[in-house]
Specification:
This protein has 132 residues and is an alpha/beta fold. It has a domain of 85 residues: 2-Layer Sandwich (Nucleotidyltransferase, domain 5), CATH 3.30.420.270. It is 34% helix and 19% strand. It has 3 helices and 7 strands. The protein has a 5-stranded mixed β-sheet with strand order 4-3-2-5-6, covered by helices on one side.
């Protein structure tokens, strides 16, 4: 009594589903890698061996030619306090933290002006540096 199978199993393997997954992962990593660098200004930061783990809510940058930026928008020094107060008020942030990115070649008084704005408003301030 010989039993025969009615359907034969196909030994071929289809790679189409695997390539779909690879392309989806590729697209995912390409999109997320553009979100890694929040500060798009080219600054030469001073070096430090101590790093903090606090996350900043707003970023203030000072370039070597003394241009002030909030995020990536250039603003005059006089408007920084009002812009940050408005941002923190509209987002209902109880304890705001500001990250200060300064080029290492700027005069100290330019950095101190922004530090005084943060101190007057009782905001936490992080001075951004490069790791050694």
């Amino acid at each position: 009594m010989a039993l025969k199978r009615r359907s034969k199993v196909n030994p071929n393997f289809s790679m189409s589903s695997m390539t779909d997954i690879v392309f989806l992962l590729l697209i995912f990593f390409m999109v997320t890698s553009t979100l890694v660098a929040p500060n798009a200004l080219k600054l030469l930061l001073p070096q430090s061996s101590h790093q903090t783990s606090a996350t900043a809510i707003a970023t203030v940058s000072i370039t070597s030619d003394l241009n002030y930026y909030v995020g990536t928008t250039q603003v005059p020094l006089e408007d920084i306090e009002g812009i940050l107060q408005h941002k923190f008020r509209t987002e209902n942030i109880a304890e705001p933290t500001v990250s200060l990115h300064c080029d290492q070649n700027i005069p100290l008084h330019a950095m101190v002006k922004v530090m005084n704005i943060a101190k007057d408003n009782k905001w936490k301030l992080i001075l951004a540096t490069q790791a050694k």
